[in-house]
Model the fold of this input.
Amino acid sequence: MREEILAYKRERILEEAVKLFYERGFTGTTLDDIAAELGVTKPFIYTHFRSKVDLLAALCKPTIEMSLAAVENAAASPGTPTERLHRAVVDFTRVVLSRQSNIAIYFREEKSLAPEALAEINALRRKFDHVLTRMLRDGIVAGEFELDDAGLASLAIGGMISWAYTWHRPGGRLKLDDLSGEMASMALRMVGARQTALAKVE
Amino acid sequence: MREEILAYKRERILEEAVKLFYERGFTGTTLDDIAAELGVTKPFIYTHFRSKVDLLAALCKPTIEMSLAAVENAAASPGTPTERLHRAVVDFTRVVLSRQSNIAIYFREEKSLAPEALAEINALRRKFDHVLTRMLRDGIVAGEFELDDAGLASLAIGGMISWAYTWHRPGGRLKLDDLSGEMASMALRMVGARQTALAKVE
DNA sequence: AGGTCGAGCTACCCGAAGGTAGCCTTTCCT
DNA sequence: AGGAAAGGCTACCTTCGGGTAGCTCGACCT
Done:
């Protein structure tokens, strides 16, 4: 119970930090700003995080982990390569859109991370690309995809989706589910998949 | 001639600033660092730029202008929508890869720009999306593309290409020309274009 | 009731970096 | 050659913000 309260305070700090870093940038936000928004003072933050940079890592890393988990999960799921890719794109898009601020902060402030934190995150990203590339290769072997370069295509798909953090406005024209569906059909067309192979999913 | 020397000095400052901002981040680079790299001192920079933020705008804006010019130029060029889209993707990819550092700095430091500079750049970006969306609609009307949502597809294509600034390594496996060609074929497949319509280009 | 413990606050330090005032040197013109 | 102007440097100011030492107040236990 004591533990839970501690965890809750930590979460609240992160939540407010994400909001402000997203709106004003990392450097443009002071710890005093965050504290003020929470109705506390700066030393309070220091009882939960070792430094401003530590706070940054704490809000980036789990989001990257979620992205990786989305594609890994899809890769391990049953179905044809086409179905697995569909699922990967839908789920990854969901992560990007639901954690848009965290993603934005990460890409903007990568250079501000401590070297070890950066190394950990980079390892996750390499794994992400690796899993996605593998999925595309499986599809080529199975004769479902037609691609010159699976590695490049995985970067292209990853980019097309990640990029959504720059333009998506929650409450905009397209809802999260529509968007992730559209993203998936664009990705499938891009890899040369026959959409008919997906009848049951769509 | 005097003017030319002035312009040259300005260019050199920008060049070094791009390099350092790219490597160490905007906040992580001091004006003293830039001056030191050039073998001069900080006040020298102030004879060419009004502030650090001014320097930032000076290195972002022209790059965004080049991106817009690439698609506008392709849109105004002769040929079928398929051919025009192909050209737009190839040329835009070239801009992104050749000005990779500038692009990276811009996306990372958008929040640090002065409001007016940001407004100008945002106007350019809106125009970029508009031109690209228009190009896709033309293709749909002409029966060459098959798309649910031209606006979304233009964001997807723009994102897939812009994203290259995060992973491209000059001197890597793929050369600039190969990359832009591959990007174009992925984009064409994504919009449902028949590749055969491009025989003469490829 | 009194004491102890700990959470959070007040108040402060200090380094770093953007920006500037005023001097020096070099060059070019007269 | 002498002088003036311009370009760049030395030396400085000032602000701001990350980080911390030490106090206070409230809660809980005895």
Observations:
- The first helix of chain B runs from residue 2 to 24.
- Chain B has a mean pLDDT of 95.
